[in-house]
Task: structure prediction
Amino acid sequence: MKIIGVGSVVPQKVLTNAMLEEFLDTSDEWITERTGISERRIITSELLEDMASEAARRAIADAGLAATDIDYIICSNVVNEYITPSMSCIIQGAIGAKCACVDVNAACSGFIYALDMADDRIKSGKAKNILVVAAEEPTRMVDWADRALCVLFGDGAGAVVVTEGEGYIASRLTTASKTSCLYYQRRLEPTPYITKEEKSAPMYMNGRDVFKTAVLSSSRDITALLKQTGLVPADIKHYVLHQANMRIVEAIASYLKLDMSHFPHNVERRGNTSSASIPLLLDELYQEGRLQRGDKILMSAFGAGFTTGACIFEWTK
Ligand code: UT7
Result:
């Protein structure tokens, strides 16, 4: 499998730390020091499905294909306004594709899980051109009176088109069920027969626990992938890590004894956009001309579950 097209979309509204200071007991200093985030993009009047469809159109155009050339769509998504149908079905209709579609929810690691599913499908010969989209609106999952959480997130959608080729070198997915440290719970419709107690709760996160788990698991995944492929840390041109917190990226760089020049980042302008963060950053690097043919890129993500996903691929465009 290789990547032949990339595209992304973020909402119009820029929400700065100073704007958060207007209604929260917080400060630009606290947010910047603890997270590296200065501003994020947040959905106002946009529909996530429109952003996802536009990111998909851009990736398909970049690949030089038509929507009808796509023979499978996988969308990574945690929440949107529909429980069903899936976001991938909505994207299919919006872009005019005709293929089978499925969504995957592996929280912030979802884009890597979706890429890995695409690789399997291509290897099995069941599909040739696959659209992988990650579309997320985590700003709709948090309590906006909770200063510990709402300052962290932003919204966005990123997409890639993959096809047969020699770009995807290795991958590693892990899950260790730890549902109590990060979750968002929604009450379902009542029935006359429900006797159990049910509740809705905005996102809960034990930040310190997640921080430690994230650094350890991502460092472990990266080390394992490098060992498996016989590469050394400096062989990787770009470590495109899930953009949750600048301190997490810095801790992983320090663990690998690499300077930050190998670790592109946009968390300072985008906040944590869940599984969309990696394709958003990849598209930025691509648009800025920072990806050269032959570059080895390592992506690594972690998120609720607790899930992790990492992969190494070569830039072949
Ligand atoms: O993609 C999903 C994965 N999620 C993550 O990767 C998040 C991982 N965790 C983190 O990034 C960090 O844990 C946070 C940025 C969420 C928090 O940073 P921290 O250094 O772990 O701070 P803390 O939660 O221990 O809170 C320290 C203090 C507390 O006050 P006290 O108890 O020491 O008086 C908080 O109440 O900071 C306070 N605090 C704030 N103060 C000002 C929490 N949020 C804020 C805020 N502004 N926004």
Remarks:
- The chain has a mean pLDDT of 98.
- The longest helix spans residues 207-229.
